[in-house]
Write a structure and sequence with these properties.
The chain is mainly β. It is 11% helix and 32% strand. One of its GO terms (biological process) is T cell costimulation.
């Protein structure tokens, strides 16, 4: 379940080596944190799922340069640390958080049991055949 969206604009200032982009979400049951930038297309800045970083489809310019401020996400802090900031990092960043719900969905299908015809039904059928003959 998608629960939070936050936009942060990054404007670079000289002599800053690391920048923290702030994002907070409700702190319970966070399973995915995704940071992206619109101009990167499908590639993302950072993906953190089930307590692991997911390197697939991460934009190459962010490899080994991003981290979560708090990997335990205490108090819902999913802020991004961007290291060794470059001019090319300028842009609008999006933070998305997905939560696990505690709700369960069930489907029940009730049908009558499939059984073989009972002895009584067979007896009646046989009697009907005998009466017709």
């Amino acid at each position: 379940v998608f629960i939070h969206l936050s936009l942060s604009s990054l404007t670079l200032f000289p002599n800053f080596s690391n920048v923290t982009l702030t994002c907070r979400a409700p702190s319970n049951n966070i399973i995915v944190v995704e940071w992206s930038r619109a101009d990167l297309g499908k590639e993302y800045v950072l993906m953190y799922r089930d307590e692991l970083f997911v390197p697939d489809e991460q934009h190459p310019s962010f490899k080994n340069r991003v981290d979560l401020q708090d990997r335990q996400m205490k108090d819902g802090d999913v802020s991004l640390i961007l290291k060794n900031v470059m001019i090319s990092d300028t842009g609008t960043y999006e933070c998305r958080v997905f939560r696990k719900t505690n709700r369960r969905k069930r489907a029940h299908l009730k049908t009558p049991p499939i059984t073989s015809p009972s002895f009584l039904v067979l007896l009646l059928l046989l009697l009907g055949v005998v009466l017709i003959l």
